[in-house]
Amino acid sequence: MKRIIIKVQKTVDRGAKGFKIVKLSGLEFEQLPERYTISEVAVIYKERVMIGAMAPTLKRAGVSLLQEGLFYEKKEFFSALKKIKKGGELLAEINSQLRKENAGWKGEKTFTI
Predict the structure, then answer these.
(1) Which of 18, 39, 65, 110 could form a Cys-Cys staple with 73, CB 3.0–4.6 A?
(2) What is the tens place of the pLDDT at every residue in 37-90?
(3) DSSP 8-state secondary structure symbol assigned to residue 107
(4) What are the CA-CA distances from residue 34 to residues 10, 29, 41, 98, 110 (Å)?
(5) Which helix (H) or strand (E) holds 24?
(6) What phi and psi, each to the nearest 5 degrees, are found at residue 95?
(7) What are phi and psi of 103, to 5 degrees?
(8) Residue among 84, 92, 100, 94 at smallest CA distance from 41
(9) Residue 36: closest CA among 110, 94, 109
(10) What's 57's DSSP letter?
(11) What Å distances lie between residue 104 and 31, 78, 95, 99, CA to CA?
């Protein structure tokens, strides 16, 4: 199972403690279940950016939570991290539901008319 990975470097920028985003990885829109992408807490990875939902689907709109190469003060970083964790928890819950619902839905079937 692929996970969201956020690699940071602790740094001080203009006197403020924070984190510079070194590397991000996660699931892209096409890899996520539809039930998740239409939720208000969905988070996707796209082109070195973690995007949080703002609209019914992430295809239409979203807000950048974290972006590779940028510096975030501690408060801002942990606020984004909290949103990303909430999205991750929902995704785990949806994936669990889908595994249960789709159990046994495999194999071939022949319809004779």
Answers:
(1) 18
(2) 888 889 999 898 998 875 454 455 568 899 999 999 999 999 999 999 999 999
(3) S
(4) 35, 9, 13, 11, 29
(5) strand 16-25
(6) -60, -40
(7) -60, 130
(8) 84
(9) 94
(10) S
(11) 22, 41, 16, 10
